[in-house]
Description:
By secondary structure, the protein is an alpha/beta fold. The protein folds into three domains: 2-91, 2-Layer Sandwich (Nucleotidyltransferase, domain 5), CATH 3.30.420; 94-277, Nucleotidyltransferase, domain 5 (2-Layer Sandwich), CATH 3.30.420.150; 292-431, Hypothetical protein af1432 (Orthogonal Bundle). The protein is 48% helix and 14% strand. The protein is built from 18 helices and 13 strands. A six-stranded mixed beta sheet has the order 7-6-5-8-10-9, with helices on both faces. The protein has a three-stranded mixed beta sheet with strand order 11-12-13. The chain has a two-stranded antiparallel sheet with strand order 1-2. It is elongated and about 90 Å long.
Amino acid sequence: MIVARLENGVLRVVDRHREMVRLAEGLGDGQLLSIDAQWRALACLRRFGQRLRELDSEDVRAVGTNTLRAADNAAGFMAQAEQALGHPIDIISGVEEARLIYLGVARSRGSDDGRRLVIDIGGGSTELILGEALDAGRMNSFYMGCVGLSQQFFADGKVSDKAMAAAETRARQELEPVENLYLQDYWDTALGASGTIKAAARIAFENNWCKEEGVVSKSALKQIKKALLEAGRIDKLSLKGLDDDRKPVLPGGIAILRAVFSTFRIDTMRVSSGALREGLLYDLVGRIQHEDIREHSVCVLAERSGRDAEQAARVRETALQLYRMVADGWKLGDTELEQMLAWAAELHESGKMVAFNQHHKHGEYIIRNANLQGFSQQEQTLLSVLVRAHRRKFPADVFKSVPKRWSRQAIRLAILLRLAVTLNRGRSDVQLPEIGIEVSKNAITLDLPEDWLEVHPLTRADLASEAACLAVINYKLVVSQ
């Protein structure tokens, strides 16, 4: 956990706290997170929650990575985790994790490294990124980490030459498909981030295997491997610079790191002070300062889909107009929800790139599975569901996939989007008349001029059809004239 204060555009760290929970250790063969691992994590989150209790949720960013992406029982755990922390927790994709890691590294290094190869070895995944300055280019996330590999090859606590060779081979097999994409022709500096690489650099320096602090060399990794093999068992390992909580996962981490060095012909790697947590802070600052990368991601997908930009703008304007009129009555006073509605309006016709027929379903699939930088899995789910629900029968079942914190609001956002689409069905630049709207718990009264409806009989019919669709989910739509 990192707590920082934004002062004159610069982040000043005011508090840090680190606990090694090893959540990935609790992921069993059935992809279920063990009770013990859940309890360890919840206890940690309660302690963190005490420090964050006084902060607004808009100023807190908490994320889960590979283990929560993989666990089949993540949803149940997440509800408890959010309660323990006192703030929402987002699950991010591997590629989004890589982007945030690179942002944290780039912000901590300045711009003197030229083209960078960034490697981050976590508990359950390993990320590789090629980038320059603040721009991450190629990004890959691999389903292997220091915890997983240590469990797979060193579960009995023994470290043998055979086990180490097998672990390195397994890591190289994972990296092999992208070997030619990350060779030294594409980068000037190799940088490492997070626990395993920081630990390796500290061990190398304190044991005089590297003369410079914050550096890992190929020869130093050979010495660390030799020390592991000479110890023979993890519990007998004694190295200067090695913390006790790092010992159980060091063999797996070193196996991955040696495979990275070998695969990509690396001789020396420098350690970055920044990584995922710092990247999250800078990403949060971007959102606060209206430089939200999610807006860019939506624009890119919208352009690729070939959607009608003018129609999307009409629907967006109307949807936001309705939102602002009902925000208090429906308790929608959340900036994030307003943004989600606006982005859903931008993308509501994105499925037409596949086919006009059932384009709301095609749009849902595209958004749910696209690589939308900046979005968490929960945010992409909400966005995809809103697009799915913008026309035809109201798909109540798909809302079960929306996180509980948004379950009621998501349905109401979908209703507003449907009304905006209906009112702009004519796809005309002629301005809509003055619209009034009042809401109660499950009722909507839409006020439109009678003379306008007289000359727009198709819209009148569409609104009648919409009232029938909403009645199925127990919402009453009345059009007042």
